[in-house]
Each structure stands twice: as structure tokens, then as C-alpha cells.
Amino acid sequence: MSNHRIFTTAFAKVYPLYVQKAERKNRTKEEVDQVIFWLTGYDAAGLQQQIDKGSDFATFFAQAPAMHPNSSLIQGVVCGVRVETIQDPLMRKIRQLDKLVDELAKGKKMETVLR
């Protein structure tokens, strides 16, 4: 496993940035949560528990109840990298979440974001 700094970054530090990004584009925290629930299988209590524990991204995804079977359909470019070509499984999951939040912030319909 490569040692990207994001892997050991607390999810709780990045989560508010996802919410802010969405809210700047007139989307809601609830919509961000819905995207996270869809991708990871967490529910509201599980997500809050990860935030409260200060879990890093590696732990957040390792403990995710169930990655959505359609997560492999998430494609496109995040930070100049094509999501579907990322080799490292953890980095791909992080970038998939980034991509979903990007699409939400770009005003895509929820049905489109949640493949």
C-alpha cells in the first residue's frame, strides 16, 4: 500500500470541506451524506461514529459496511487523474467519493450522481 498523506488524514477533517463545496453550489449536507451512504453503505449513525472517532480515510473505507456494486461505474477526472485508472484500491475509493461530491456540486441530478 502506498503511503499517501490522504490515507492517514482524518475523514472528519475532509468531510466539512465536501459539505462546504456542495453548499457553495446550493446543495445540502444531506445530499453529501446521501452520496456517502450510497457509496459506502454507512448510515447516519455509522457515518457520525467514524467522524466522532476521528477515523482516517484508510479506516473509514476499511470499515465501510458495503461499497456500492456500481462504484466501478464512477469515471472521470479528479485532480487531473482518471478515477477508473487508479491502481491503488484505497486511492480509487477516495477519488470516487471526490468525484461524486464534484458531480453533486456541479448541479447534476441525484439520480445521475448515484448511478
Q: What are the main properties of this structure?
A:
115 residues, mainly alpha, 6 helices, 2 strands, 55% helix, UCP033199
How many domains in all?
1
* Helical stretch tally: 6
Unreliable stretches (pLDDT < 50, length at least 5) are: none
Instruction: State the helical fraction.
Output: 40-55%
- Share in β-strands: under 5%
CATH architecture: Orthogonal Bundle
- Label the overall shape: globular
* Broad structural category: mainly alpha
CATH homologous superfamily name?
Answer: uncharacterized protein sp1917 domain
Our Rg estimate from Cα atoms comes to 13 Å
Q: Summarize model confidence as the mean pLDDT.
A: 93
H/E element sequence: HHHHEEHH
Strand line-up in the sheet with most strands = 1-2
Question: What is the CATH topology classification name?
Answer: Helicase, Ruva Protein, domain 3
Distance between the termini: 28 Å
Question: Count the strands?
Answer: 2
At the first level of CATH, the class is Mainly Alpha
Q: Sheet bearing the most strands, described?
A: 2 strands, antiparallel
